[in-house]
Amino acid sequence: MPQEHSRAHNVPHLKIGLVLDDSLDRPDGVQQYVLTIGEWLRSRGHDVHYLVSSTHREDVEGIHSLARNIGVRFNGNNMRMPLPASPFYIRQLLKREHFDVLHVQMPYSPFLAARIINAANDDTAVVGTFHIVPHRRYVGIASRFLAAMTIRSLHRFDAVMSASAPAQSFARAAFGIRSEVVPNAVRVTDFQQAEPFAKHSAALQMLFMGRLVERKGCMLLLQASRLLRDDPSAPDFQVTVCGRGPLSMDLEAYVRDNQLQDIVTFKGFVPEGEKPRYFASADVAVFPSNGGESFGIVLVEAMASGRSAVLAGDNVGYRSILGDCPGNVLFDANDPRALAAALREVMENTAMRQHIATWQARHARSFDVSLIGPRILRLYASALRERRNVR
User: Which tens digits make up the pLDDT trace of 244-287?
Assistant: First the structure.
């Protein structure tokens, strides 16, 4: 291992392989985590590579596309799963690059990540981050089956992190993994410094940002919006929906059928670089997910703006972030009336809304990559020392 030291935390320069079974073409939470950590590590002088399934991005250096993808639905998400990767190509890659650390996103497929782990050099530390909690009972059953399929590679890990306490509990229950909670990292400053769009209405601005799938709850927000629209004593408001997904046509049909066109606007997919301005322009950001959340990167992004009060469905992942927040910011994500009541409270009480936003902005800073990155780097160094001392 090179003996030159980085400026941050006196950790030797490392060659790191970030392993993800999915593609990097999608802007989902795990991909954001991988890219955020990779960018931060590279900024500290480390040699970062991405070992992923089929990816077509050309704006990220060091990508190794190792397998073709197929679309699957798991834990309430549409995602990509790798077809079996070539063991020969994996061995050649690991021999050529000789990584100090392989950082694997968990749980993972037996067809790509497991093959990488099993082929790892003896002096390479294998570290994991566990990212999920189950949305439905069958997900827990499927995860236990997956654990049995990957049991050999699971024994190879030198250290495992979990994105939250709920993810830590599920990792232990379903996979028998002991892990340390290290939250997902966000580039908080990107959202603190964003300029809002010019405001053309005095109405309060609500924002939904996320995939248009059932689990994320955009329909619940539209139903709550209809209840508020039909209440003549409710304040004026507008709703901006940012995202795409299979429910797009159903959501647009609901808006037409309920004459909500004057208050609901669909923006479609919003690139990562434009998200901060949408959060900075909202008075209230709403995330009505009804489960399957282990953390909530999008919550932290919205909170970081310091301008919008964030309301969220009361699931274990979102509760791990917002459980101590003042005000009624968590609501029953299966009850549109509960969401309408929570929205009305923050809409009518400006002082409360600003108090919530201030608390959330301060809390968001604890998830900045400048704080989380060094924790990950120290864990890399510890796992690597342990592995090479054993040999």
Answer: 999 999 999 999 999 999 999 999 999 999 999 999 999 999 99
Domains recognised in the chain with CATH numbers: 15-185+368-390 (3.40.50.2000), 189-366 (3.40.50.2000)
**Residue 44: pLDDT band with limits 50, 70, 90:** very high
Ramachandran category for residue 108: left, alpha or beta (phi over 0 → left; psi -120 to 50 → alpha):
beta
- Tokens 């489960």 correspond to 291
Whole-Å CA distances, 308 to 159, 196, 206, 230, 284: 37, 11, 9, 24, 5
Tokens at residue 170, please? 């599920």
143, two tokens: 């995860």
